[in-house]
């Protein structure tokens, strides 16, 4: 499973700004036409298990003026994420078994030393996109890969979509292991970009992971799953009214967001593909393995493939 941190929700338009409380100003980006946008901002934490999204928390960001009215200390978005990750092991929100298998996915907007250190202090691993100016082995990561041209490119193929006729998207990546990321310690750095005629130069990303044993392919595939939160935001706004609140009082906006998340969770429980209540993670994984074996056995040479799958699973558990 992966925990994805990030994503914000802008609920208001500029027409109503002077009548609303706790209005935050976001940085300019391509989503809002490369200009500043003002609205209510929430930081969402979700858990991805086998492609399914489980919302864990939606934390509001309070403006300086609103914090002064409430008499509380102002916290930036980076501080909110850091504090939430620090309390995650003690919150009993997730079991120790799940926490040991989690990768925290972060985009470049959350490239902060405090967040990365909090993840490692909690005993978790992270896969994060960093800015091109982040220092690696005494050099900006962009210059590091430019000066170390001997590091080869490796092509990675990823399937997109589901069902028959799904397309294959090609990436290429360079890997630098056991490098020092300033402020975060020893990491593995990947330089990844799309490999196609229509790919833009902006498709290049610098990805780091604290798991030294993670392969290049798995790191790129796991980071690509971060896009699911953007699709989830679109689904929440289209079908669950996530951004349809025009209340003046910010407490009403918070309640509306929480009710939208509850509606999503209740509707997701009706999915026939989900296990019954009380099923453990190991039982659910075993069910998926049996389903995979049922499909393989009908293929040509299915018996040999079943033996290979069984041997691979036994090797994961048994020593030698």
Automatic annotation (TrEMBL):
GO biological process, alphabetically ordered: DNA transposition
Gene Ontology molecular function: DNA binding; transposase activity
Cited InterPro entries: RNaseH-like_sf, Transposase_11
Sequence ranges assigned to domain Transposase IS4-like in this UniProt record: 77-266
Name under which the protein is recorded: Transposase DDE domain-containing protein
Originating organism: Pseudobacteriovorax antillogorgiicola
Taxonomic placement: Bacteria, Pseudomonadati, Bdellovibrionota, Oligoflexia, Oligoflexales
